[in-house]
């Protein structure tokens, strides 16, 4: 009788264990079954994700995603998504991971889980050339007489609202439209991520001035749906691997230490 009960307990434990194993790593299981890694981003964030002249997507995140998919043995599928809808797209299953230069912050972390940061950036300033030497830091822009632009739903916008409360703020759907406001004289400055500011300033050196040194600390991370530690574990180990074998440095140099890719974009 005792032996029978023990056997039943062992059998039940085996069933529970097997059931947990089947349900573990739902995202990874889905990727393996579909043969696709679907990565959400918002094309236009140089040099992370952009649309090339041949309508293909290129950029730092895109290359990292392709390497990830190759190592998984699946096809990389880019999912271009408007920024204000990118987290809902992940949550509703339109993509498996957000690889989009997304800053890790508390509000987003309440909706998604982040892997370890894969790069750290911060906010910099694009200035109207007339203000060069007049504006020496972001603090100088915190004045009702100045108009500041940024992209809707980004950390740039959050920074303006939190740190430049006295300035007039104009939000735009894309970072390019926000930067054009400065060139066209409709905004005194634009607050945005340092990589974009650096590249845009290089392309328009005769039209804008910059304060390039970031005044915020912003780690960027890949995001996945909450409740799947196996996917987080995979992403963290993948990042360690490519940083250890030189793949990360090679891709980083391609997009951040060279401007050869500029001729590919529209």
Automatic annotation (TrEMBL):
Residues 36-259 form the Solute-binding protein family 3/N-terminal domain. It holds the Pfam family SBP_bac_3. Gene3D superfamilies: Periplasmic binding protein-like II (3.40.190.10). It is found in: Cell envelope. Residues 1-24 form the signal peptide. GO terms for molecular function: ligand-gated monoatomic ion channel activity. The keyword Signal applies. Keywords: Signal. Its main location: other. It comes from the Bacteria. InterPro entries: Iontro_rcpt_C, SBP_3_CS, Solute-binding_3/MltF_N. GO terms for cellular component: cell envelope; membrane. Residues 36-258 form the Ionotropic glutamate receptor C-terminal domain. Belongs to the bacterial solute-binding protein 3 family. This is Amino acid ABC transporter substrate-binding protein.
